[in-house]
Amino acid sequence: MIHELAKKIAAAGIKRIDGQVLVDATLFPEGEAELGTGAIISPVVVNDNLIDVTVTPGAKPGDPANIHISPQSAYATFINQATTGAPGSKNTIDWGQDKVQPNGSHVVTIIGSFPADSPSILYSYDVPQPSRFAEMTLVEALREDGVQANFSSYSATPDFAALAANYTPANVVAEHVSPPFAQDVKVTLKVSQNLHASLVPYLLGAILAHARTHVVQAGFNLEHAFLEKAGLDLSGASQSDGAGGAEAAFFTPDFMCRYLAYMSRQKDFPIFQKALPILGKDGTLFNIGVHSPAAGHVFAKTGTYMATDRLNDDLMVTGKGLAGYLVAKNGRRYSFALYANRVSLPLGGLSSIETVVGGTLGQIAAAIYEIGP
């Protein structure tokens, strides 16, 4: 998106920008961290407000680990102090110091040890200030396309309310039109993209409710009205963020099934169903029930809560759900909601959450497919 805008600006004949390149991120407040991944919520999103850091081992133990950064940006400079550990050693890769520079950029140190026999692992650096990240990457993209441009002053606070008077059709130089909301819903549900989900109440509040303050509450007020109009009993639902990471996220199985049944009667239902992960085929269910007869017949969203149990040096899965639709062997269609709570697993066994807990929920859904309720 940034490079697309830069090319359009250059194509418009602009060769030099004497003023400053600014990003207006005042649609709603920027800065709250999404609770699942830590990505920063902002009106402007570039690369999901992340910088990808791929780590691979060096040639032999003791050598520096190899790192690859994408996208490359002046916003963040990474200093590699990570080393290659012995085969079978513990992976201790982590972020060390993160120093903010006078221009708002960051210098981040990568520390720890990476096993010599480990495959590459993709890490994500959560961009602390997405609006500044967008400004700096846009300036760099403009320079690549032959437009002279400079970073704005980091210490200055522009009066965007005054500048907005110039946001007229006559002054538009380049425009990026986002994909339809249906496509973003598919991304959000298929791979459980928490940042996109977390943005929804902000966007509802800012765009549909036209709120300038208490934007998130305004978004949830619209959601409440929608669910109430659907005839659902809201005593079975509680929510405080878009992705369901807040402590107030509770939905009874009865509420979920009734909500899913309501959605199945809406004109956009085919879009909604196709956006859900498919058992044994794609999304967060690609590796669950692959060889089950129900593979390809269960369309459902996953969700996981977990915490470290220090007392027993274990991982406690405080909640894992699977909710959606299935077309049973008898041809009947069902909505379902399955929850597993308080499952103890070995610490560090994140993959076992899917194989043990997720696999069990998938087997229950497969049983429903085989025999029906």
How does this structure look, described?
By secondary structure, the protein is an alpha+beta fold. The chain has nine helices and 14 strands. Strands 11, 12, 13 and 14 form a four-stranded antiparallel β-sheet that branches. The chain has a three-stranded antiparallel β-sheet with strand order 2-1-8, with no helix packed on it. A hairpin with a 5-residue loop joins strand 5 (94-100) and strand 6. The longest helix is centred in the C-terminal third of the chain and has 22 residues, at 350-371. The relative contact order is 0.10.
- The name of the CATH architecture of the largest domain is 3-Layer(aba) Sandwich
Radius of gyration: 24 Å
- Briefly, what CATH class of the largest domain? Alpha Beta
Number of strands: 14
**Could you state the oligomeric state of the chains shown?**
single chain
CATH superfamily of the largest domain: DD-peptidase/beta-lactamase superfamily
Strand content: 15-25%
Classify the helix fraction into a percent range: 25-40%
Summarize the biggest pleated sheet.
4 strands, antiparallel
Which geometry do the CA atoms define?
globular
